């Protein structure tokens, strides 16, 4: 399989469209800014998407002059070889990927609220129960010191695992301590929740479960196992 096809398949697995030979783009939100209330308030969404995520995209595009190969790659492929680039690419490239992934991981639709049969079976196999998985994920989110992310991933051996990463790192990066294909991610930077929850990260994490897009997560799992 050639490299371009590999990159395209990875992009499809993540749920993003493949784009190369151009600046990185910020896709529109798949719902209105108030659609996730009361779990995530509209003001936070406006700032988080419109200011923070936009800044990551703009700052990443500013690095193309330093690394001409960047605009030949998908954002997923950039993560996989992040050690080639400077800190600005790592932080902003990670920030762009993570946030695009995060928005698609959320949904106000009740019908998106359950894992697929296959994913639920694997969760129970690898964690003992869905409740055990949630507990482990919550611990990863609340236990991350400072800023970062909590993840549900598929490891190269096919098993599910929960991990957390600092700053804007993610499990796709070649520098990640725990590598794998991300299925679900939670942003635990303070800008993601502080306006509504202040220092109550645990409350934010609890509310997150009410807006998880399990259909998208399940689709990612199905793609990762093809």
UniProtKB/TrEMBL annotation:
Keywords: Metal-binding, Oxidoreductase, Signal
Binding site for Mn(2+): 48, 99, 187, 191
TM ranges: none
Catalytic class of the enzyme: oxidoreductase
Protein's job: Destroys radicals which are normally produced within the cells and which are toxic to biological systems.
Sequence similarity: Belongs to the iron/manganese superoxide dismutase family.
Protein name: Superoxide dismutase
Lineage start: Bacteria, Pseudomonadati, Pseudomonadota, Gammaproteobacteria, Moraxellales
């Amino acid at each position: 399989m050639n490299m371009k096809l590999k990159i395209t398949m990875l992009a499809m697995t993540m749920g993003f469209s493949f784009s190369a030979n151009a600046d990185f783009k910020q896709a529109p939100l798949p719902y209105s800014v108030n659609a996730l209330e009361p779990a995530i308030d509209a003001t936070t969404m406006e700032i988080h998407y419109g200011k923070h995520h936009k800044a990551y995209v703009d700052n990443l595009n500013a690095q193309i002059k330093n690394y001409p190969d960047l605009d030949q790659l998908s954002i997923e492929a950039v993560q996989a070889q992040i050690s080639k680039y400077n800190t600005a690419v790592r932080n902003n490239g990670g920030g762009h990927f993570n946030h695009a992934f995060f928005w698609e991981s959320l949904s106000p639709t009740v019908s998106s609220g359950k894992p697929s049969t296959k994913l639920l079976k694997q969760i129970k196999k690898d964690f003992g129960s869905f409740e055990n998985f949630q507990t482990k994920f919550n611990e990863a989110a609340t236990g991350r010191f400072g800023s970062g992310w909590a993840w549900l991933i598929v490891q190269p051996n096919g098993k599910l695992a929960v991990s957390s990463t600092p700053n804007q790192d993610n499990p796709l990066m070649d520098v990640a301590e725990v590598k794998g294909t991300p299925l679900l991610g939670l942003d635990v930077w303070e800008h993601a929740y502080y306006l509504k929850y202040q220092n109550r990260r645990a409350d934010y994490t609890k509310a997150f479960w009410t807006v998880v897009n399990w259909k998208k997560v399940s689709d990612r799992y199905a793609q990762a196992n093809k």
